[in-house]
Every structure is written in C-alpha cells, then in structure tokens.
Amino acid sequence: MTSSTTDSTQLPLSKIALLNLGFRPFFLGAALFAIVSVALWMGVYAFQLPLQIEGISIFQWHAHEMIYGFAVAVIAGFLLTAVKNWTGVQTLYGLGLLGLFALWAIPRILFFFGTCFMGLAATLDILFILSLIVAVAYPVFKVRQWKQMGIMAKLALLAVGNSCFYLGAAGFIENGVYIGIYGGLYLIIGLMLTMGRRLIPFFVEVGVGYPVKLLNSKWLDLSSLVLFLVFFIVEVFIGNQPISALLSMGLFIITSVRLVGWHTVGIWKQPLLWSLFIAFLLIDVGFLLMALLPFFNLSKLLAIHAFSFGGIGIATLSMMARVSLGHTGRDVKSPSVAVTIALAALIAGSLFRVALPLIAADFYLIWVLVSQILWIAAFLIFVIIYSPMLIKPRVDGQFG
C-alpha cells in the first residue's frame, strides 16, 4: 500500500508526485488557502461582505483560520518532510498523506461559509491535528529520537488550543476562544524560536559561501526558553499587562542579541537567508511593541501582526520556497527572481500593517487593505512559480 510508512529504500515512485512527501500538498494547500482566505477576509472586513458568524466574532474567525488553517498547514508540511530527514524513516505518503490533507482541507472549506458547519469542522480539525501528531511521532519514536519531544509537545498543545477554541465557541469553556487563538499564536511563535535556533545558523553557515561560525549560547537558549514559557502563561491565562511587558522586553533583548550573533554580511546576497533574518527581526519587533504597550497608546493588534503577518508570514513563505527547491532536487541558492519579489511584497505588507498605522493612524483601513493585497500577491507568486515543482516528480528522479 502506498499509504504505509516504510524505509525509504523500499519505496516505489508514487503515480502521483504531489503525494510523495508532506511538503507537496500542504505547501500548495497553505499557499492557495492564504490567497482565498485573506481575499474573503478583505471582503468581510473592508467591504462588509456578509458572512454568517455565530458564537465568535469575525476577527476571531479570521484569526483562527490563519493560525490553525494556514500556519498549521505549513508546519505539517515542514515536519512531515523534516522528520524524514532527521530520523531516516519515511513519513506519510500516497493515500495516507491524502487522507491527512483532506482532514485539514475540509474544515477550511467549511469555514468559508462562516460558522454554519462549526460542529463538523471542529471534529475534522481536531482529528487532523491528532493524526498529524501520530504521523510525526511514529518515526521519532521508532528511532528513539527523544530530542524532538519539545516539538511533539508543542503539536500536542496546538491540539489542546484548537479544542479550547471550539469548546469556547460552543459555550463550554469560558475564555476558550481567547485561549485557543492566543495560545495557538504564541505556540507557533515558540515553535519558530525553537526551529530558528536549529536551522538559521546552519542555513547561514552553509549558504553564504565563505567560512563563518555564528555565535550561539546555551545561556541565551535557556533564558529564551524560560522567559517565553512565563510570557506564554501570563499572556494566555493571567492577562497582567505590566508583567507581560517586562517579559516582552526581556525577550526583545535576548532575541536582539541572538540576531546580532546570527548576522553576517553574506546573508544579504541570498533571498532565502535574509528573508528568514527579517522574519525573526519582525518577531523581535513584536516583542518590543508588546513591551511598550503600557507606556504608549498602542494597539496590541500591531504587535500581534508583527508576530503573525511579519514573522510567521515571511518565515513560512521563505521556508516553503527553500524546502520546495531542496526536496525537488533543485538549488536552494538559486530561487526565482519572482520569489524575491514575493518576499519583498510580504515585507512591504508588514510595514503597511504594523509601521504605517503608528505614523498615520487615520488611514488605518487603507493600510490594512494594502497589506492584504500585498499578502495575496506574494502567495499568488508562490503558487504560480512553485505549483509545477510541487505537482511534478523530482528533477533528479528520486522519491520525495
């Protein structure tokens, strides 16, 4: 059966290349969803397009779908691909991968109709995350690679967060919707901080074309882990803004030091390196804005969108481009010029969504609308350039 998980040396080539490895359907699905969902959100937010929403607000509907729809799809595609590399054990492919993808895709389609089909969407959505955990855990447990338990724990907490959202929307958990949305957002930021610590120094050291050893520190690692854990608890469950601001300032300082240690001039010649650097810089900006909230009349949404639109959006597009090139047998150092344009569009969108409202708040709706258009344009470019790569077999004839 093509849906089984076996050693890669025993794998036949699938008749459908799109189902050979997790990054293929999930990256394509995430990019298409990024376009359609934000276009729909633009219609609802800017042009008052009617959408039947009950139990949650339209803002919570949008936030849920960008976190548990878009971002989790990218995480699924990345982990199903990366875990195969880390463990040497083949992850889901063929019919098994198709089934997992369907569990993600059907709730996304149902949410296009508002909350009319919330019960069915909730059932399939939770089943998707639980199935993803099993699919990722199997190879990890098989080779006893216990160092991946932190990532497994974050996936499990995402399942809990999504469950809280649905139970809150149904009236069973007080503040469940808030816990689900903000818990999900910060879990993804935490996962990015974890993966960024692993991947960015490695990508830079092997990608700049000259010998360099980037600075890392166990002290920074431990400080970041502890501070972020306390920040998560305070933000999601306690809601004490002064304490949250103090923790945010600490995270801003730690992340700034880390970014200085990761910088070398060679990154600016590689779009798939400088984009990751800028993504983490915008996460750093998010921490700074969170730290300034008690002292200035700032909207918390600006910090949230520095994290989400800037940090998550740019990092996901960059990683999707990099992984898609590398795992289809292409050179990650030679992305299409169009990819640079797409990344630049997202960076510009981040400025419109986060920076310009600080300068000219009277034009807030215009800034939001422009940022939405730039987001759609960026992921449309990705779909146009990368869908042939994702649909067709690897250029080197290997499986994957």
From TrEMBL:
Classification via InterPro entries: NnrS (IPR010266)
Transmembrane segments: 21-46, 66-83, 95-114, 120-141, 153-173, 179-199, 219-237, 243-260, 272-296, 302-325, 337-359, 365-386
Keywords: Membrane, Transmembrane, Transmembrane helix
Domain of life: Bacteria
Name of protein: NnrS family protein
Species: Candidatus Contendobacter odensis Run_B_J11
